Please model this.
Amino acid sequence: MLKLACGIILKKFAKYFLVSRFMNVRRFQILTCFLLFFALPINLFSQNKSPRGFKNLNLYREFVAKSSRVFNPHGTTAKIRYSLSRKYTDSLILPKSYSQSKLVFHDAFDSFNSNTWGVGQPWGVYHPSFPHQYYGDSEVFVKNGYLYLLNQSRKKTFNSNTKDSITIPYGTGLINTFKSNSFQYGYFAIRCKNPQGAATWPAFWLTGRYHWPPEIDIFEMYGKKDGSTVHKQMITLHLGETENKSKRQFERGFKLPANTDTSFHIYSCDWNDKRIRFYTDGVYVKSFRLTSWMRQYFQEPMYLIVNNALDHRYLEYLPKGKFSQAFVVDWVKVYQNPKQILIPSSKE
Model:
């Protein structure tokens, strides 16, 4: 019955696209997509046997799921079939392009290394545009082999006894490698567990050592009103010409299993001179092709940042009394191929 229905649909498509007097490029693209991602898979699945070249039907279904693409106007493609693919949440699986790579940076957080990580942003302990939170030392600590980055209610006054005195209600945890290492290309990975609760905003990202932008957000998650939306991964590239405003950004988001705040997951990124690819639990989820215009912004060194911020848009949903929400990190790793560059800050 399924094959019969498929045959009828195919005949109608053939009549419209092939018998038509003009076969333009757009019609050809639509027909090709229909055949590849609808008609062919349904026809094969209905036979209840594996296609030639695949050991079983389940492997073929996984292949089709992994091969799915979503078109976007910037000429890039996204894979969003995360839930149908094999996942690796315990150990890092490197792409084949990094088979000859070297582990150039690794912190498993047996202790906190202040020579590797700086607490807070290099430019200050709070952002004037977001005076609801500061980057505190008490919000960063290591325990039982894990790094904890907190966001919590802990008032602190800065610039006391001056006209610029300000009291900030929330402390947040942020660490960076600005004073130890910057990187020009590589494979960047983190294994971590999201915080729970409202207004949470954990992130793992790279930003320019000498300018902003560029910025590569390997992931950002938003808890919003009640924390239930923290399982949607946002991937963003920031690029442009100004120091105080990003001229352009490319952003994609997709849902993950609803356990990112109770279980550990691995988020990673391959940044090279032609593309920036993103992986979650070993599954390839997104790729941005760097055009010649984009490439000029993603060829300078960048340093790593891991943080647990509070989203100012949802502060009203935070508990009224004392609270503390932890972003837990197992490890951070960076691999580089021979021609990619690690830049220790001491060498500058």
